[in-house]
Amino acid sequence: MTYQDAIDYLYKQLPAFETQGASGYKPGLDTAIALDNWLGNPHRNYPCIHIAGTNGKGSVSNMLAATLQTSGYRVGLFTSPHLVDFRERIRVDGKMIDKRRVSHFVERWQASGLQCKPSFFELTTALAFEHFSKEKVDIAIIEVGLGGRLDCSNIITPILSIITNISLDHTQFLGHTLPEIASEKAGIIKPGVPVVIGKATEPQVREVFESTAREHHSPIVFATDSPMVTESIKNPDGTFSITATGYNRPLTCQLGGDYQVENVNTVLHSIAALRSMRLVVLKKAIKQGLAQVSRLTGFMGRWMVIGSSPTIICDAGHNAGAWAIQSRQLSSLQCHKLHMVIGFSADKDIDTVLGMMPGNATYYFTQAQSQRSMKASQLQALAATHSLQGNCYTKVMQAFNAATRAAGRNDVVFVGGSFYVLGDLFAHLGKRGTMLNKKGKN
């Protein structure tokens, strides 16, 4: 079996939420347990950190991985979705899983005779758990796929659970209120295992986490109760300088986006929890991990500046919670004109998101090459009800090229709305051997 054969099987023969939407979602742990037993329970061979939340999971996961790598640990990192290459999901010390291991795993699965019918994500999770065992990682960071309680990754018993924040997303699966969604996310809290909550400002949400922690006798910390980040300053290059409790000199966070300040606070509290377990995490490693997270782990797509003159910014924020912060940051940009290349998955609360978007921008409505994408023409019509004007393009690169051609040197081009929009963009730019040149033109 070739690697491409394996990828085709994973996507085309198995139900996959990320390409099919609701029809590809398969809650429950029975299949995950069956797969884990078939493989000999590989996840038990190393300690894990389990991370759930509506937004910020990827950023927190990668910042923790970068910090632990720099501390000398061999770190497995399992995240989703990927942007361009499936193997982005499964990394050890920033290196993607080998293609041969993916194809060999799928071959073994097909020959196993096991009667369960796994989803794309269940089989991918099993592959990640086994890969980390074979690579003899010191610790693995496991990001929840969807929810928490019924997510197939929830067969693990971690040394630390982290829940970044709660907002409305995937309501058709997780519930239509914040407490209902919080209850699903709280499902990763395990008996006696410490849990760090990044942000839970709503009293009912907080009570869900507190009551679950009490029930499981799990020590709980709310990162916003005693913020370790006391001040943040945005640098001209898009990074942040962060003043934090216990650090004599400012920390630099490589990841842009105003929302990263909250994520760094969550990371610092999580590191404090790990240190209390006698894990050695030096301050110089924390400083280097935050400053070089993208280089160390390959993380992309979070307020990522890929060009200048005009400035070109990409961000994968894709729900109302993310856009509540992102829209404010876009509106505060010092630029002559703002060009917005946007596309969304059709199952998102797009109407609410559009109501948050800057009204003084030129829009380029587009659609990713994904079954879940809303048609560009439908997005254009919906945006018009919010007085957002622009042309529609059936391919992301068409929209991107139109925006960069129209943009002046002092303008900003923003690309986002979904992971799939960025995936299409990066795939095309990557084929040309580089992202963009200094002038931001491709």
Give keywords.
39% helix; globular; six-stranded mixed sheet; disordered C terminus; alpha/beta; Protein-Tyrosine Phosphatase, Chain A; 17 strands; eight-stranded mixed sheet; 442 residues; UDP-N-acetylmuramoyl-L-alanine:D-glutamate ligase
Quick structural summary:
By secondary structure, the chain is of the alpha/beta class. The chain has helices at residues 3-12, 17-20, 30-38, 57-70, 99-110, 120-134, 171-174, 178-185, 203-216, 260-276, 283-291, 293-297, 320-331, 350-354, 376-384, 396-406, 419-431, and strands at 48-52, 75-78, 90-92, 95-96, 139-143, 160-163, 195-197, 220-222, 229-234, 240-244, 251-253, 304-307, 311-315, 338-342, 362-365, 390-392, 412-416. 39% of the residues lie in helices and 16% in strands.
Write up what this structure looks like:
This protein is of the alpha/beta class and about 450 residues long. The chain has two domains: about 5-295, Mur-like, catalytic domain (UDP-N-acetylmuramoyl-L-alanine:D-glutamate ligase); about 305-430, Protein-Tyrosine Phosphatase, Chain A (Alpha-Beta Complex). The chain is about 40% helix and about 15% strand. It has 17 helices and 17 strands. It has helices at about 5-10, 15-20, 30-40, 55-70, 100-110, 120-135, 170-175, 180-185, 205-215, 260-275, 285-290, 295, 320-330, 350-355, 375-385, 395-405, 420-430, and strands spanning about 50, 75-80, 90, 95, 140-145, 160-165, 195, 220, 230-235, 240-245, 250-255, 305, 310-315, 340, 360-365, 390, 410-415. The strands form three sheets. It has an eight-stranded mixed beta sheet with strand order 4-3-2-5-1-6-7-8, with helices on both faces. Strands 12-13-17-14-15-16 form a six-stranded mixed beta sheet. Helix 4 packs across helix 10, helix 4 crosses helix 11 and helix 8 (about 180-185) runs parallel beside helix 9 (about 205-215). The longest helix has 17 residues, at about 260-275.
